[in-house]
Amino acid sequence: MFRFEHPEYLYGLLLLPLVWAIFVVRAYAWKRRIQRLGEPALVRGLMPELSRGRRRLRFLLLAPALAMIVVALANPQTGSTLEKAERKGIEIMIALDVSNSMLAEDIQPNRLSRARQAISRLIDKLSNDRIGMVVFAGKAYTQLPITSDYSAAKLFLSTVGPELIPSQGTAIGDAIAQAMAAFGESENSKAIIVITDGENHEDDALLAAGEAARKDIMVCTIGMGTPEGGPIPQYQGNLRVGFKKDQAGSTVVTRLNEAMLQQIAASGSGIYVRASNTDAGLEQVFEAVNKLEKTSFEARTFSDYEDRFQPFLVAALILLLTEMLIAERRSRWFRNFSLFNHKLFDTKRP
Fold first, then answer.
1. Residue 7's closest CA among 88, 85, 64, 73?
2. CATH code of the domain in which 134 resides
3. Among 95, 143, 174, 304, which one is most buried in terms of CB atoms within 10 A?
4. What is the pLDDT of residues 233-266, one digit of tens each?
């Protein structure tokens, strides 16, 4: 099992494009200065000790050295022992809506980001429980099978976004069915938490929630959004280019379908909570779910993690030392040295 002890340090890799940009700007500025002095070829001939190739080589050593330092700070680790443990808890499947309407900003920073933050906090509270995740829009897919590996759960959560499912819609019934299937045939206490705005509801979610209740699976719902709603932002890359419009050219406003989510929770013998800017609702839902009877199950986790930062740190030090030893100016000996200089290999003495 491989993991990073401090994955937040990996954001430091985002500095590499900045380092590259600084190098390019400096190289361009140097070229402009040479051009202002006169004919570039002539100016370089007057300064033979300067080497552009050495400057580029130093950068090619510095950039990977910085990357190695960042990876070392994140501390890669490998789990050497697979440990079996008897735990007592419940199984929870999160069904998260990732349709484009979840990008609306009537809840800050937006509905989807708020839901992801709340799920992350929920994972931090778990101890002996198991968790899995289903994502859905027009269709539902199991993003994370039921597991007791909370680090993996957070890793999968960080990858969730609208781009995962191209078909738009809100297939809540399909998501509940996927979540039920992910539980398997275990007899542990189970709960499904559906996080959605409930808009563009397409299938018979009430029937699916009722089926779950008959299998002793509690279905709770959390409504993301407000009854007043908000426009749906549209992006090109990370740049917002406007809001979604209908065929008449009017801005589309997405609103929370609270009545539907209340009915789904009632059919699933669970509770409904509406999220707000101050409370995402998972606290109350988790309290209700936590009242379920805890059952014993066998969990397998990796233990005895060993640090593996050392090779990355050594590689970074070697690259940095090499970079420091390379001067931008050619030494006089190397400038005159040539493998094909006949004087160096002439064995005939006058």
1. 73
2. 3.40.50.410
3. 95
4. 988 877 888 898 988 889 989 999 999 999 999 9
Cis upstream peptide for 109 (omega within 30°): yes
Residue 349: inside a domain: no
Are 294 and 128 a contacting pair, CB within 8 Å?
A: yes
Residue 93 lies in a domain: yes
Scanning the structure block, which residue is given the tokens 């039921």? 146
Backbone angles phi, psi at 301, to 5 degrees: -135, 155
Q: What are the φ/ψ torsions at residue 164 (nearest 5 degrees)?
A: -65, -35
Taken as a whole, the chain contains a residue count of 350
- Quick: pLDDT tens for 177-205: 999 999 987 778 999 999 999 876 667 89
Give me 38's structure tokens.
Answer: 């006169």
Cα 193 to Cα 222: distance, rounded to the nearest angstrom? 7
DSSP codes of every residue in 217-267: EEEEEEE-S-SS-EE-EEEETTEEEEE-B-TTSPBPEE---HHHHHHHHHH
d(CA 181, CA 311): 43
Tokens of 55: 């400057």
Handedness of CA 113, 265, 209, 228 (dihedral sign): negative
Q: Does residue 134 sit in the same domain as residue 31?
A: no
**Residue 338: count of CB within 10 angstroms of its CB:** 10
Distance CA 200, CA 164 (A): 18
Residue 26 lies in a domain: yes
Angle between helices 282-289 and 111-125 (to 10 degrees): 40
> How many other CB atoms are there within 10 angstroms of residue 99's CB atom?
25
Residue reference for tokens 């001939």: 45
State the residue range of the domain holding 181. Answer: 84-301
Quick one: pLDDT band at residue 165, thresholds 50, 70, 90? confident
**Is 71 in the same domain as 93?**
no
